[in-house]
Amino acid sequence: MSVCRWRRAAVNLLPLKMEARLKSAICIKAFIRRCDLAAVPVAILARGDNDAGAILLKFNYRDIGCMVLAQARGKNGELFWMKATGAATIAEPDADAYIERRRKHDPDLWVVEIENASAESIIDARIA
Fold first, then answer.
1. Taking 70 as the threshold, does the pLDDT of residue 63 lie above it?
2. Which residues have a Cβ under 8 Å from the Cβ of 29 and sit 6 or more positions away?
3. What are the start-end ranges of the E strands in the chain?
4. Is 94 exposed, middle or buried (0-12, 13-18, 19+ CB in 10 A)?
5. In terms of Cα–Cα distance, which of 128, 113, 124, 98 is closest to 40?
6. Containing structural domain, residue 74
7. Whether this model's pTM surpasses 0.85
8. How far is CA 105 from the centre of its chain?
9. How many structural domains comprise the chain?
10. Measured at the alpha carbon of residue 55, what is the angle toward residues 41 and 36, in degrees to the nearest 5?
11. Residue 103 lies in a domain
12. What is the pLDDT of residues 9-59, one digit of tens each?
């Protein structure tokens, strides 16, 4: 019995290696738990898709300003966090405006606000 040409071609297009990834809701729960253990105030500003929603972390340093980090994947699939609003901190209204623009384009986006904590103490992945 022969296999159709299109089916054979489709099988060849399948990725050879699939990576298991944590659901977004589980990652959010882990961030909240890590903040709770460090006695750092944390709040979910927007709930996204439980399975595959992208995640934004808003670090609010109050007097200094805010920094927004976006979850990203590198060329080899490794997780890292990108400084979405630039290297320097920005004013809170500017950070909120950026988040609102991203939410308009992606309603499945999770937004978590973390107060008065360094990003490195909460995140165990690389920050770029």
1. yes
2. none
3. 42-46, 55-60, 66-73, 79-83, 110-115, 126-127
4. middle
5. 113
6. 20-122
7. no
8. 15
9. 1
10. 25
11. yes
12. 555 555 556 566 789 999 999 999 999 999 999 999 999 999 989 999 999
